[in-house]
Design a protein that fits this description.
Order of helices and strands: HHHHHH
Number of domains: 1
Number of strands: 0
Shape: extended
Distance between the termini: 47 Å
Length: about 140
């Protein structure tokens, strides 16, 4: 059983730490998800819409079935999400290596400097690959 003192402490702590309260703090955290754009879906990117549509049509093999087209679109979007994440990873590594171009022996040190950023990308890639695999299973009728 929780003591009255503990309940009071919990209530006191509950009144704090619920995010920023000032306009400046709220404006700052509003941009957290925009660091690299990987939290957004590729379907929100209108420049990729024609490519996604083309891959969707190719996967659907001319089918007019709306369910088949929806499943093909899910695969196409997932494939482009994986591609986008891998492109960001490659850019990070290339940027680290290019930065150290005059001293090739320091390339390893440069790559190690971006390891923390690369490990953060794993979360997005795992999510995208899981979505792709699930979409393929549904598309093939294995689920």
């Amino acid at each position: 059983m929780t003591s009255a003192r503990q309940v009071a402490a919990n209530r006191k702590n509950g009144r704090r730490s619920h995010g920023p309260r000032t306009a400046k703090g709220k404006a700052r955290i509003k941009l957290n998800a925009l660091r690299h754009g990987l939290a957004t879906r590729v379907s929100d990117d209108s420049s990729l819409a024609p490519e996604i549509e083309r891959l969707m049509r190719h996967l659907a093999l001319g089918s007019a079935d709306p369910n088949r087209l929806a499943q093909a679109k899910e695969i196409a979007e997932s494939e482009f999400e994986v591609w986008r994440i891998r492109r960001v990873r490659t850019a990070l590594i290339d940027g680290a290596i290019d930065h150290e171009r005059p001293q090739p022996e320091r390339a390893e040190v440069a790559i190690l400097s971006v390891v923390s950023q690369l490990s953060k990308l794993d979360r997005y890639e795992r999510r995208a690959l899981s979505r792709l695999n699930r979409a393929i299973l549904y598309f093939c009728g294995w689920c």
